[in-house]
Amino acid sequence: MGSDDALPTLPGNGILDGLSAGPMVPRLVLGARLRELREGRDISREAAGERIRASRSKISRMEAGRHGFKLRDVTDLLTLYGVTDEAERATLLTLAEEANSPAWWQYFNDVVPTWTQTYLGAEQAASLIRCFEVQRVPHLLQTADYARASLRLAHSAAGGAELDRRVRLRMTRQRILRRRPAAQLWAVIDEAALRRPVGGIRTMRAQLRHLIEICRLPQVTVQVMPFRAGGHAAEAGPVTILRLPGGRLPDMVYLEQRVTALYPDRPDEIECYWDVMNRLVVEAESPDETPTILHRILQET
User: Fold this and answer.
1) Distances from the Cα of 192 to the Cαs of 111, 198, 207, 225, in angstroms?
2) Measuring CA to CA, which residue among 96, 114, 97 is closest to residue 105?
3) HEC assignment per residue over 205-255
4) What SS3 class is residue 15?
């Protein structure tokens, strides 16, 4: 692997202040505004799609920030929605241009599937990340060796060069924990993930020591869901929730699967997952107990 200097620079501040997110936050802001305008005029997605010679599903993807924007399409939609104020039109068209700028992850485009692009962009802009993991240590808390072993299991046909790039992508994502201002990460990890020796005993012991160190950072909170807790609120599997800065965008729920991901985005769905997260932190061991638990597992590994 090359030196860290070869990695793309990820600025700490950005759009609307978050340049580290590349086009993602402009996409989300513009998509949310277009949805507000459409619903305010009681125009269906089908009708909006017809105006720009597109499908209902494309309008849905645009409004969710999962699709780029053609200036002509945005212009036509603003006209359809009755937006005549020149200042607002100019602002929204500027967002459309920013939404088409290169994304930071394009440096790793060969190993970034389309279904995770929205998440990667939003993650780099997030002010708060809450997650629960069952099988693995969360990506943002993994060592390079642990990440390589985990990625090798998920991509068994990948060669060494591809694995190198996948590891570098994962390590690059972790810069959000060291930037200024740093993202706040609150992770709940099932005890099973901490006892499963991914990559072998030596790699797992190094991973546990890394967790002990990193959970001392003020911006990182780690809790352990012990076996003895029995059933818990997230039995359906891993979940991640992102909160973006500025208070103008809804929280993003991300449910990663084997070859795709789900982004539940209805307000009631987002509220449901927040309820799950809030119940998890009550059911898990206190963050103050995490170093003790990790030391105990380390001794037993």
Assistant:
1) 28, 11, 14, 9
2) 114
3) HHHHHHHHHHCCCCCEEEEEECHHHCCCCCCCCCEEEEECCCCCCCCEEEE
4) coil
Picking from 203, 217, 132, the residue whose alpha carbon sits closest to that of residue 174 is 217
Contact call for residues 243 and 127 (beta carbons, < 8 A): yes
| Residue 29 burial (CB count, 10 A) | 22
- Predicted confidence pLDDT, tens digits, the chain (301 residues): 333 333 333 333 333 333 345 788 888 899 999 999 999 999 999 999 999 999 999 999 999 888 789 999 999 999 999 999 999 999 999 999 988 888 888 889 999 998 998 899 899 889 999 999 999 999 999 999 999 999 999 999 999 999 999 999 999 999 999 988 899 999 999 999 999 999 999 999 999 999 999 999 999 999 999 999 888 887 888 999 999 887 778 899 999 998 999 999 899 999 999 999 999 999 999 999 999 999 999 999 8
Is residue 207 a contact partner of residue 222, using CB atoms and an 8 Å limit? no
Residue whose entry in the numeric block shows the structure tokens 């992508």: 169
CATH code, 113-142+173-300: 3.30.870.10
Residue type for position 38: R
Global pTM value: 0.81
Euclidean distance between the first and the last CA atom of the chain, given in angstroms as a whole number = 29
Let me know: does 18 contact 124? Beta carbons within 8 Å.
yes
Closest CA to 125 of 181, 167, 171: 181
User: Distance between CA 172 and CA 175 in Å, rounded?
Assistant: 6
Q: Which tokens belong to 234?
A: 């997230």
User: What are the domain boundaries of the chain?
Assistant: 19-98, 113-142+173-300
What gap in Å lies between CA 177 and CA 75, rounded to an integer?
38
Provide the pairing of β-strand 184-190 with 220-225.
parallel
The CATH classification number of 19-98 equals 1.10.260.40
